[in-house]
Amino acid sequence: xxxxLFDGECHFCDASVQFIIKxxxxxxxxxxxxxxxxxxxxxxxxxxxxxxDSMIYIEGDKSYVKxxxxxxxxxxxxxxxxxxxxxxxxxxxxxxxxxxxxxxNRHKLGKKTECKIPTKEELERFLH
Length: 128
Fold this sequence. Notes:
- The chain is an alpha+beta fold and 128 residues long.
- It has helices at residues 11-22, 37-45, 66-76, 92-105, 120-123; strands at 2-6, 30-33, 56-59, 62-65.
- A hairpin with a 2-residue loop joins strand 3 (56-59) and strand 4.
- It starts with a strand and ends in a 5-residue tail after the last helix.
- The model has no long low-confidence stretch (mean pLDDT 87).
């Protein structure tokens, strides 16, 4: 299981999902909105607080949030994005401070009023 949970009402999160899809040619990741039924079940199953302000990455039987999730996702992306993975050696409090700054300001872009219509192939990667 390699699932990315994202805020389905956030422009930045939607752009992040589209970014990952384009760079995941091996189709390693599946996606689910945190607001979806399956997203809520996964939050409960992995004991992730519903107040967490982060993209969440579930790999096998473990979950990751904030910068750790982002860097673990980079490890599986195509091309040079793998080079970001070693940044895991930076103390988590420093990495997460940068992540939190971005997360805190992401809604300033406003809520989505329209979404990119996924192709049939892309749609198969979203959990409902």
